[in-house]
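Re-run with default settings, no changes from the original entry. Doing this only to confirm the output is reproducible before filing.
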Amino acid sequence: AEPVEVVAVNQCSGNSRGYSSPRVFGAQLANGAMGNARWFGVPLRKVLEKAGVAAGARQVTFNGLDTPVLPATSDFRKALDIEHALQDEPMLAWSMNGKDLPFLNGYPVKLIVPGYFGTYWVKHLSEIEVIDHVFDGHDALFMTTAYRVPDNDCQCVAPGSAAAKTRPISTLPVRSFITSVQAGGILPSARSIELKGIAFDGGAGIKTVEVSIDGGQSWKAATLGKDLGRFSFREWRAPVSFAKKGRAVLMVRATNQKGEGQPATVDWNPAGYRRHVVESTPVTIA
């Protein structure tokens, strides 16, 4: 099979979990549990077609060389529906940003699932199995118990409550960030400055990014940077100026090609997954 390349965001399901209110169990992550890289390898479907997929196949499971810390802990295995596994996007990568995969990023081979959360991006890939049923049992803990979200349109529940029914987490929602200014930063009032940041989604591609410097009362279109592909970060920039000194709240929101945007309030869930609310950055204008 001919090698292929894709630029794609790998984001932890619990990225930004530390901002959940009420607080939830798990690593109290800020916004940094994500990255964007250039992946090089072969399409998963080419490998499956070479091996031969029998009629009646339901899912494909993936295992890596890493093992549980405790004997009683389930192995970390993930599954994709056969229809998804046979699409063009999932790939087996051995190169990241033009170099061999670093060990911590999954050397020697890593499953890349563009548009899906990082829990599916199995590192140190050692085993691929096609099965004729939905993956279950002791080794399916990370499909059947962990990495699940409420089974409804918003994948959310009332803060502090539990979900009656859940499903495995899957695609990345629309997200956007201001990266040039940190919360608590001091910005000048006398001149224009350029806000910069990134936006991404699960593969429809970013259509628009807007910024606000007055806490969401008014919005201004940002200029989008180079398009590296529909699964990549999209850089944006917007010149702004402040009419008066004092406190201000900067905000950014994005919309994708499907018309999907970001909620004004948090879609809460018990695991702190999938945060994609419009983020606010409080600053002081001096």
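The mean pLDDT is 97. The chain is about 5% helix and 35% strand.
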